[in-house]
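Revision sheet: structure tokens.
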Amino acid sequence: PAGQDVFAYYAVPRGSRPSSESASCIDWIERVPVLLQYLPARLQELTFLVEDRYFRLYAAEASVEAGEQNLKDAKQSLDAARKNYEVGLKPKQDLLQAEANFRKAEFDLETAKATVEDARGALARVLGVQVSAALEIDPPDFSRWRDYQGDSVTTRIEEALKTRPDLLAAQATA
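Predicted:
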């Protein structure tokens, strides 16, 4: 993290940090193992945050696409209701209901667009980049999950019980 105290960034306790007055490289080198013990948890947290924000942005963009289609459908329904009202086939209440549905679809689309901008900003903050409309993501490749024919849950549990005596003991006492 550029421009930040690396020990504070990785939540290393103050007593475990080298002094800022220390000019000795040895003092810093001795503290590297301390830093490394905090690093994996911070990296896991950061990885989770990036994945979470990525999928939130992806879902928000999908909501915009759905909202656009919903707006098209509502417009077609409004046009049909207007024509049916004009020729006397439907009452004015049907026309007003179609207009209300169209306005709601417009509102929902604008809400979805705002959600995309919120999600884009959240992802940019986690990545440490400027928030801009240019921050675009590629859609996830779900094909590798679709084709996954992994072990069953039962097989995974049996494997865990063989390799983790603490789980085996917990199961025996349960």
